[in-house]
Amino acid sequence: MPITFEHVSHIYGEGTPFRYVALEDTNLTIRDGAFTALIGQTGSGKSTLVQHINALLLPASGTVYVLDREIKAGTEPKGLKSLRKDVGLVFQFPEYQLFEETVLKDVAFGPKNFGATQEEAERRAKEALRMTGLGKEYEERSPLELSGGQKRRVAIAGILAMDPKVLVLDEPTAGLDTTGAMSMMKLFRDLNRKHGKTVIMITHDMEQVFSYCDEVVVMEHGKAIIHEDVQTFFHDSSKCRELNILPPAVIRLRDELRAKGFEIGDDVRELQALAACVAKQVKHHG
């Protein structure tokens, strides 16, 4: 089932001088099984939006439909524990939430909290650690002794061990080097493509959106103003510039080459294909 927001608003500090409308009459449907990017300027409502998906925040007005649940303004949501098992939310810098003595205990905490036996929790924790690229040698180590990238993998493994149907990621590669970020993005793509998980990711990195995501939602002033597939969104780079969003490097280079007279088709989306297209035309005119 899709995730649907119907006329959802959220207000921080209601009744105080600090009142702030973070979401305003937002309507959005996120397709089941898609890898969807949420983008937009800081303060546009992205993080507030995703925290409604597992009811960490509740709407001031409107209704959120998640899987088979209804989260409606003014009513107490039901089945929160099962909802938060099915919707795994990975905050920015989730490694700050590590607290157990060993990596295995930390990752197994979630399944145990949701009713799994010790044996089952450990089995699922080990599977999740392997999915994130951490071998058996990490299981008995203290999470605090790991590198930043390894801590991030442990924190994400803790979410994966609960086997959520929906994975919500808030800037998951923030602070990682290029290699670590690429490895993490490949993991999320595999979870989406091979394991059928709906993935929703907040990011400012258009290279990641272009390379890994299926759909793009642009948030502005608490509303979803654009929702398109990735290819359509990046077809006209002027749209990105109007939104103060830097297009991916290959799109910028494609535009520059077109301006110099090269014929570059919209289907050219990778640097190697772009180079081959240019080489063919240079050879032909040489």
Count of separate structural domains: 2
Which stretches are poorly predicted, pLDDT < 50 over at least 5 residues? none
Second rung of CATH, namely the architecture of the largest domain? 3-Layer(aba) Sandwich
State the CATH superfamily name of the largest domain: P-loop containing nucleotide triphosphate hydrolases
Helix content: 25-40%
CATH fold node name of the largest domain: Rossmann fold
Nutshell version of this structure?
By secondary structure, the chain is an alpha/beta fold. 39% of the residues lie in helices and 22% in strands. The chain folds into two domains: 3-247, Rossmann fold (3-Layer(aba) Sandwich); 248-286, no CATH class.
SSE inventory with pairings:
Layout lengths: L2 E10 L7 E11 L4 E5 L6 H5 L10 E6 L2 E4 L7 H7 E4 L12 H11 L4 H14 L16 H13 L5 E5 L7 H16 L4 E5 L3 H7 L2 E6 L2 E7 H6 L1 H6 L6 H11 L11 H15 L1
Parallel strand pairs: 3-8, 3-9, 6-7, 7-8
Antiparallel strand pairs: 1-2, 1-4, 4-5, 9-10
Helix pairs in contact: 3-4, 3-5, 4-5
Describe it for me?
- The structure is a single chain.
- The protein is α/β, with parallel strands linked by helices and 286 residues long.
- The longest helix is centred in the middle third of the chain and has 16 residues, at 178-193.
- The strands form two sheets. The protein has a six-stranded mixed β-sheet with strand order 6-7-8-3-9-10. Strands 2-1-4-5 form a four-stranded antiparallel β-sheet, with no helix packed on it.
- β1 and β2 (20-30) form a beta hairpin.
- It is globular.
- It contains eleven helices and ten strands.
- The model has no long low-confidence stretch (mean pLDDT 92).
- Helices cover 39% and strands 22% of the residues.
- α3 (103-113) crosses α4 (118-131), α3 runs parallel beside α5 (148-160) and α4 crosses α5.
- It has two domains: 3-247, P-loop containing nucleotide triphosphate hydrolases (Rossmann fold, 3-Layer(aba) Sandwich); 248-286, no CATH class.
